[in-house]
Structures are given as structure tokens and as C-alpha cells.
Amino acid sequence: MTDTIEKLRGELLTAVSDTNDLATLEEVRVAALGKKGRITALMKELGAMTPDERKAAGQRLNVLKDEVAAALDTRKVMFEQAALNARLASESMDVSLPVRPEAKGSIHPISQTIAEIAAIFGEMGFELAEGPDIEDDFHNFTALNFPPGHPAREMHDTFFLPPDGDGNRYLLRTHTSPVQIRTMMSQKPPIRVIIPGRTYRCDYDMTHTPMFHQVELLVIDTESSMAHLRGCLQEFVRTFFGIDDLTTRFRPSFFPFTEPSAEMDIGCSRQGGELKLGNHGDWLEILGCGMVHPNVIKACGLDPDVYQGFAAGMGIERIAMLKYGIPDLRTFFESDLRWLRHYGFAALDVPSVTGGLAR
Fold first, then answer.
1. What does the alpha-carbon distance between residue 303 and residue 191 come to, in Å, rounded to a whole number?
2. Neighbouring C-beta atoms of residue 112, cutoff 10 Å
3. 209 and 332 in contact (C-beta within 8 Å)?
4. By the number of CB atoms within 10 A of the CB, which of 79, 114, 187, 272 ranks highest?
5. Residue 297 and residue 259: Cα distance in Å, rounded?
6. How far is the C-alpha of 243 from the C-alpha of 180, rounded, in Å?
7. Given phi > 0 = left and psi -120 to 50 = alpha, else beta, which region is 201?
8. 13: part of which helix (H) or strand (E)?
């Protein structure tokens, strides 16, 4: 059988090397190693041999089988690599060609609105501050004067994460206020920052989404008052909406982290079912604000008898919807290119107070 095996070895390796495509290579594999293949047929003859002959012939057949399988694999890889190279060559792109007219990108309204907010408050001397989306209980609740058992701590409002090995409970931040705490604990007053970012709550309808954007402003010094807060916010809404005589009013409210607290309304009209901003006799709530609570200042290691300040927060999607006439909050996150082409902004349309805010 030795001569037969050597002859078969030469024939099979030659057949493998002569193949020109994967289909022919598969035919050679089946003819050699399939259930009715030539090597398989020789394997079946081992049962009629003596033990010594069977051992010797079996070893040679196994070597032949491995050698042919390796040759088949090598040839297959070569064909696959050649096919890939041919595909890459056929799909190549000439990067020197001009961009197609229809391939025009747009700035998302959320990104544009954040840039507009930063431009306005930047003119007032505010700096940007950021923080992590995953927070601990202290920064998100305790330091902000949320008492134990407060509804905002419950599962129906908050995305809690599984406790870590030490039993610490983390969550997706429900507001950007934890960055106020981190800023007051890491910087010495005076502090004047705005804090845009993502926030997370368990809610979903036309005016609520599980993830949305907020922006907060924080001022900490020794002399700030509600009068400063009112002037700052009034100047912001008039500049943002481009209405010089936009009326505002402040109504008493309650937030755990501010005292006194207020909600700010802007003038509007709802006649004919159309919402129009301006001095028209009706009102629309737009944000919450107030003087930073002494307990919050104390939790950050500052003396509330020395330092005071104000804070305010608003939903970025909300003011973008009001300014740009977007009716449904959910469309901000649906990745519809048609929507983005309609509501998006040119990449070079960088907002500034002096150069103009997009409208």
C-alpha cells in the first residue's frame, strides 16, 4: 500500500495546486476527503490487514490526510484573499472627487441650541462646566438637600444601577445639578458657570424622553441676589428668542436645593391655537430657579454665612422646540435624515451674540 499512498499523494497535491477557483477546490476536497473520497476508501481497507500492517498504513494515511487538508486550506486562503483584493479594487473611491451635492451634513438642533446658550452666557462671563453621567447618591441627591424618602429617589423616576461590591448605589443622573456640587467642591468662589449635558428619567411621551438635555447656571459669591438672577435670566431669554420686549415674571415655587425658589414664565399668546412668544398677555413656564440653599453650600464645604448665590435650570429640548417650532420632543432622537435636513443648521453657522443667533 506504500506505493499506492505515495502515488495518491502526488495526484492529490497536484490537483490542489491546479485548481483555479473555490468551486473546483471544493470538488477536489470532496474527491479526496469526502465520504466516498479516495483517502476515505483506503482507510476502509485497513480492516483487512494484519495489526502490524494496519498500524504502518494507518500512520501513513493520517499523514497524507493532514498534508492534503493543509494544502486545501492554504489554497482556499489564497483564493479568498484574491477575491477580497479584487472587491476592494472595484469598490475604491477617488477621494479627490468633489463632494456630491446631496451629501450635505447638518448640525443637530440640540448642538446648535447648546452653542447659542454658551454664546449668550459667555458674554456674561460664565464658563462651561461638565461632569459624569453616572453619579452617586451623594452628588445627585444628598448634597442637593433631597431628604430621605423624596419621590425623586424612587425607581419610577430614576435609572438606578446595580450596587457595586461595597454596596454603593449609582444611577444615571436625573439632572445636571450634581455638577454644581462638584464645581463648588473643587473651586473657590467666585464661581460663575453654565452646565449643559444629558440627563435621564423614566418617562416617554410627546414632551418627555428617557434621555434629554438640560443646562444649568450657577453663581456663587458674597453679593449675588434674586435681583441679579432676574436680570441675568431676563437678558438670556430676550437674546435667545430675539424679542427685545419679551415679558417675564417669577412665581414662588419649591425646589429642595434653592430657597427662595421660583419658576420663570415668559409672555406668549395662544390665540387661534398657535403659540406665539412676546408681550401678548398670556404666560408660559420655561425654567426653575432660586437662591442656592444654605444646606447645599454647607454640603460643599463652604460657609453659608459668607457665600451665597443663585442657580437656574431649563430643558434644552424645550427651548429649542419653542424657538424652532418643533412639535414633538421624540423626533430629536429618531435619527431621521429628512427631519435633520429640515431643522438642522449649516456647519459654519456658528452662533454669537455679536454675529447673530440662528433663527
1. 14
2. 23
3. yes
4. 114
5. 12
6. 30
7. beta
8. helix 2-18
Residue with grid cell 444654605, as numbered in its chain: 294
Maximum C-alpha span of the chain: 109
Q: What confidence tens digit (pLDDT) does each residue in 228-265 have?
A: 999 999 999 999 999 998 999 999 999 999 999 999 99
Mapped onto helix, strand or coil, the DSSP state of residue 239 is: helix
- Separation CA 191–CA 184 (nearest Å): 8
Q: What is the mean pLDDT of residues 55-78?
A: 87
Q: Which of 274, 129, 258, 109 is nearest to 187 (CA)?
A: 129
Residue that the C-alpha cell 473546483 belongs to: 24
Contact 12, 66 (CB under 8 A): no
Strand partners, 219: 192, 310
Q: How many residues does the chain have?
A: 359
**Interatomic CA distance for residues 347 and 359, integer angstroms:** 15
Give one DSSP letter per residue of 119-162, joined into a string: HHHHHTT-EE----SEEEHHHHTGGGTPPTT-GGGSTTT--BPP
Cα-based distances in Å from 220 to 61, 65, 228, 302: 85, 80, 12, 10
Q: What is the mean pLDDT of residues 11-33?
A: 87
H helices present in 242-326, as ranges: 294-299, 316-324
